[in-house]
Amino acid sequence: MKPAKILRIARWELTKNAGGVDRRTLGVVAVAVVLLVAVAPVVAFSGVGLDDELYRVGISEESEFAPVVAEDNTFAVVDDATVQDLESGQIDLYLADTAVHRSDSEKGAAAYEEFRDSVATYNEQQLRQEPNHSAAFPVEVIVAFEEQTGSAVIVGAPDGEEPLPEQDQDDADDGQPADEQQEPSGDEEDEGQPAADEDTDTDEALTEETDEDLPADEADDGDPEAPEPSDGQELEEEDEQTGPLAEFLGPLSEDGLTGSPADITPPFPFQSLVLAFLFVIPLNFVIQAYGSTILSERINRRGELLLVTPVSRTDIIAGKTLPYFVGAMALQAVLAVGAVWLLRGELGGFISVLALTPLVLLFLGSTFLGAMFARSFKELTFVTVTITVSLTSYAFIPAIFSDIDPIALISPLTLVVRDLQNETIALSEFLFSAGPPTLVALVFFTLGAGLYREEDMFDQRSMSGKICDSLVGPITSKWHVGLVTVMLIPFVLVTQLVAVATFFALGELAIVLLFVVVAVTEELAKTFHIYAAYEHNRFERTAKSAVVLGTISGAAFFLIEIAILVFQLIGFTELEIGEALLLFSGVITGPTEVVLLLPPLALHVATAVIGAFGAFRSKRTYIVAVSLAMLVHLVYNLSVVMLFV
Amino acid sequence: MIQLVIAGFSSFLVVGLTALYDPASAGGDELTVGISGETEDQLLAVAMERDDVEPRPYVSEAAAMEAFERGEVDAVVSGRVLADEAETVQLDVVVPAEDLRTTLIVTTLREYLIAVEAAERQERAHELSFTPIELPEETGEGSPYFGFTYTILLPLLLFLPPFISGSIAVDSMTEELERGTLELLRVAPLSLVDVVDGKALGMIAIAPLQALLWIGLLRVNGIGISNSWVLAVTVTAIATLAVVIGLMLALLTRQRRQAQLLYSILVLLLFGLAVALPEHPASTIAKLAIDSATFGTFAHVGFITALAVGSYLFMRRYVTQLNPERL
């Protein structure tokens, strides 16, 4: 690794024509992006309804619902329709003078529900224009979030996002939002706030909440009673400060909600979805370009020129990756710091950036390997789509369950969510979340680097052949088999963790499914490279060598697995499924009882030997043998669970 | 294969997104609410009429909070009347700080609180100039998935194949150009137009097939899709547009990276700009599928088809005057 050389290759990557994107393209992209940014808010907010005119309604002349239909684009009025048209499917709803009739179909039922909502929205809108605001909205609701475990942890901490204007104006007013949330047991009542104060309080709070939580179009007309001029000024300033993004991210902060009942929007539970889109989508553009650049090196032997220079291939790879890594990290950093600033009004987000690093590495690493495998651009497109889908689900699925600690922490996005919420993150949690993806990314790069040589780069070998090559690359002696096994473990671990996250909601069935995944991934990780090594004639095709290799691989796997399970699966015992995961390795009563560790050791070695036995003959025997090994593994795991649970 | 992965992923997303679309659909359990404070009677009266809220009165808010912390109630609502003119009722609501459960609780509570508000509003009706229109009775029959399926899911499924077709068209053209294999093809008695035609038609033909497959799958799942042939035509037209954009970019830039980057951004942009049309293509698809198509909808299909044919002819003209030697 020589920094100077890496930097030079990185510079070439950015400037030379074959690699970089030329100015004309950049110009078009810039214009397109600007336009896109300009169009996006229109698409998002103007209610360019996808459901415009989705349902057809007939309406009687005197119907009280006429203004509702006029306001809502979802309903298209069919002229001169009568009740009879409901049956023929000409219309879905018929609005009589005071009653609503619907057609007897699924569509009619859906239209009816939709119409109920429309009526409610219409009422709400009309009431907002009432001069007597407090009669129109006689109920004010203040929602506070409290941990139910007894400890009064505040979620909507005083985080500087919403400095309510009256705080500094009115010292007598103790009702700071934070206090209210901390002690909802009616402190204000005791202190007897002047009622007038409270009134302004809520009005302003209402305005703010409306601005933040509702789509822009509703927010605009949602404020008939403007607050006093001075306050209004401050409110406006604050609007500028939080910006339009706050509408998306607002709920992330989980502040208390205030307003009339209809204003209460449930906190957005899938914060990770927003984050996934925010942080993960840009990565897809980066890997597109990155994948192209790697693959174009392999077309027409272009990469040959670099390969013959006195630069090591790690330097080449590092140099070619560096611009994309730096670019992606810069983008993520801007997004993270921006998000923190928008949410909390302060600089921060360092931990978020740190947590996003493994994700960026994972995207780049898998794309690199994919580009080394792919034979053509078409294949590369499929590879990138697969990477996008699988990595997005990896980042997204676990983060949905953000209230179940160990599951949520599988995804590094959870760390970002927590950092944005200003929660503290323990070092162990960070390692648990960020460790495996980093290791997997490193494995990807290592395997890919194994292929970055003349024989493989310019060869039209099939994908599976390339995969074999990449695995065999590092194997030169029998002990290296164990090393490759160790190298594959992070991959196994991540797959299993994602399986845990996907299945855990299924209850009993989940454990069985999980064991299937465990058996399949672990057996493949233990013996596939042995098979590949035999195919490359690295070892003599004898039963003896199969036993030796199987033992080495199985033992190596066992050692690392125990180490990982003991040190890494911190909180997993809380969950039934996590317990099962620990159980099959035999650590149920703790690692002190060495006797209990022997069966899993025997299992891993035995199944690896079974697999290796098939591997030294042919592809077909390998498939049979590895399936058998998986079956043994599965039966063992299930019986252990039966015995101990 | 990839399609399968995407299908699996999108069906997962559907459940997730639908829950997001209407969190109430994931819940349905009765909520136990601790009620206290001055307006206890009104709160109880409204709660009694609802079957999604089970009220539990407490003497004081402190007592209710204790029950909350013990987990006996899901939420606490305590009310008091403010001393302002309109005697506004202030409700302090405490809900658990969890993720999914909080959303479900708040969603149910919101309905309840709106009912409370309606009751309070009724008492002040004489001060209002506008009489709220009474809500039609709740039937609970309409599926919250219904609109979603047609307006989001189906357009998503039908737009995806054309986009991927265009992307593959970019790949296959730039690959020929970058590898120089176009030379080989030209040895055969084929003009450049023939080559481009072949690539384009193959990619375009795949899209409606996939679309019809999706429609068939949805039908098997009991989701009726009307006008499936019109939908297929629409998808073909959109695929044609995407493929033309892809091939043109490939011919103009001659490099995959440039072409792909421009392709994905331009297609996104076009999709956004389609808002300017009286009816967004996604909306067209939804209306066709749900059988609410109007004259305008069919006019749109005609327009998109004409646009597709026009752009294809334009591309052919461009290719004809290209000098293959210089590619």
Explain how this protein is built.
The complex is a heterodimer of chains A (645) and B (327). Chain A contains 29 helices and six strands. Chain A has 645 residues and is mainly α. In chain A, strands 2-1-3-4 form a four-stranded mixed beta sheet. Chain A has a two-stranded antiparallel ribbon with strand order 5-6. In chain A, strand 3 (93-95) and strand 4 (100-102) form a beta hairpin. Chain A is globular, with a radius of gyration of 31 Å. Mean pLDDT of chain A is 68; it is low at 150-255, 568-577 and 583-595. Chain B is 65% helix and 8% strand. Chain B is α/β, with parallel strands linked by helices and 327 residues long. The longest helix of chain B is centred in the middle third of the chain and has 36 residues, at 144-179. Chain B has helices spanning 2-21, 40-49, 61-69, 100-123, 144-179, 182-187, 192-220, 228-253, 256-273, 281-290, 295-320, and strands spanning 31-37, 53-57, 75-81, 89-96. In chain B, helix 5 (144-179) packs antiparallel against helix 7 (192-220), helix 8 crosses helix 9 (256-273) and helix 10 (281-290) packs across helix 11 (295-320). The model of chain B is unreliable at 1-5 and 14-27 (pLDDT under 50). Chains A and B meet through helix 2, helix 5, helix 6, strand 5 and helix 10 of A and helix 1, helix 3, strand 3, strand 4 and helix 4 of B. Strand 5 of chain A pairs parallel with strand 4 of chain B.
